Amino acid sequence: MTFLLKRGTRYYYNRRVPDIFRHLDRRDTVRVSLRTDSRAHAWRKAVALNDEVEAYWQSLINETLLHDASRFGKIVLVAHQLGFSYQPMSAVATLPLQQLVERVLATRDASPKQVEALLGGKEAPLLPLSKVLDKYWELAKDKIAGKSLDQVRKWRRPRARVIDRFIRLTGDKELKDVTRDDVLSFRDWWLERIRTEDQNALSANKEFIHLKGILELVSEHYKVGLDVPHLFKKVKLATRFKKQRLPFTTEQIITMLHSDKLYDMNKELRWFLLSAAETGARPSELTGLMPEDIRLNAPVPHITITDRKERTLKNAHSERVIPLVGYALAAFRACPQGFPRYRDKTDNLSNAANKFLRQNGLLPSAQHSVYSFRHSFQDRILGINAPDRVQAELMGHRFNRPKYGNGPSLEQKKEWMDRVCLMQPNQVS
């Protein structure tokens, strides 16, 4: 952070209002005297104040905050302007005598708002657990920036589920009243599910992580003072190895793709299976393709998997170009617009495909699914000893060595793809 400004012997907190907030806060800059000539002291004050300024800007955007909650945010800011962190009256009353005296002395010639800020005249707003999730959605907007509607839904679903379960177990108590015993009770509830319902510890640990993240962010923003690290200390459950999806063998894929039963599927779903089998791309990457990502008239036909503002990829390594060969080339010639029926509805596609394949006896085991095509593709390119960098760039994985140059060309990647192509030369696409 570089929001310090020195004028004469005094330091100021000085920050330009970000463009995203400019329509709500029309000042060019926020400048607050830190009332010190010590750079170290000014730095500590500026760090604390910056947190409150950002919280204030966020409260302007939230719009769902009640008037009292907004006023509370302003009181916090006033307290930091005077060099003290805001605490509610109940907390101020328990401060060490020296700190309490310092606050009282600071009220000399102070305005009523400043007195209220220093002595905690306004308690933090009440936040029952049933309201915490709504606050969390507002505070966590940065976490869903660039996600599609389907990605946002998938991100929200487990978090909404864990709060609902926690409330069912503990009751709709105030956030400030959540105790470690509540968290341990939730842990015990999960242990019983694992024992009686064939659930697994991985699912439990994910819920602990989601619950901790929600409580921590909301508590920090609203100055609830919840000791979240203590609440969740050593809550994580020991886990066994995770059962991986099994890959299809090449023979199993060929049998599946040649089955007459596939013609009972809708066109997009059937061609999707062929493209997934031949490219090894993630289902979400294929359903997210736009017409301009499908280059059938290029010297080497290919698809471009691109990160978009409205549809983010799993990670930076996922951006890549995949040559189209065999069944995949046939699939995209039949579906040059991609798979619009399932665009941003990857779960619908996966569920429909897995259900159809299972009902028609086309999945070898319960550990196989549509995602098994990706594992099979990895096995095939590994089996022909493709260079590590070629494998990484076809799969969308991190390449664990420094990258030099532009990497394998499209033509070079196609040469390797041809060697693992599922469609034989004599087959008609």
Produce the secondary structure layout.
Layout: E1 4-7, E2 10-16, E3 29-33, H1 39-62, H2 67-81, H3 89-92, H4 97-106, H5 112-119, H6 129-139, H7 149-170, H8 180-196, H9 201-221, H10 228-231, H11 250-257, H12 267-279, H13 283-287, E4 294-295, E5 302-305, E6 320-323, H14 326-334, H15 346-359, H16 372-383, H17 388-395, H18 410-419
Antiparallel strand pairs: 1-2, 2-3, 4-5, 5-6
Helix pairs in contact: 1-2, 2-5, 6-9, 7-9, 12-14, 12-16
Index terms:
mainly alpha; 3-stranded antiparallel sheet; globular; single chain; 18 helices; 429 residues; 50% helix
Summarize the model shown.
The protein is mostly helical. It has helices at residues 39-62, 67-81, 89-92, 97-106, 112-119, 129-139, 149-170, 180-196, 201-221, 228-231, 250-257, 267-279, 283-287, 326-334, 346-359, 372-383, 388-395, 410-419; strands at residues 4-7, 10-16, 29-33, 294-295, 302-305, 320-323.
Q: Give the overall pLDDT as a whole number.
A: 81
Summarize the helix and strand pattern as letters.
Answer: EEEHHHHHHHHHHHHHEEEHHHHH
Q: Assign an overall shape.
A: globular
Strand content: 5-15%
Approximately how much helix is present in the residues?
Answer: 40-55%
Total number of strands: 6
Structural class determined from secondary elements:
mainly alpha
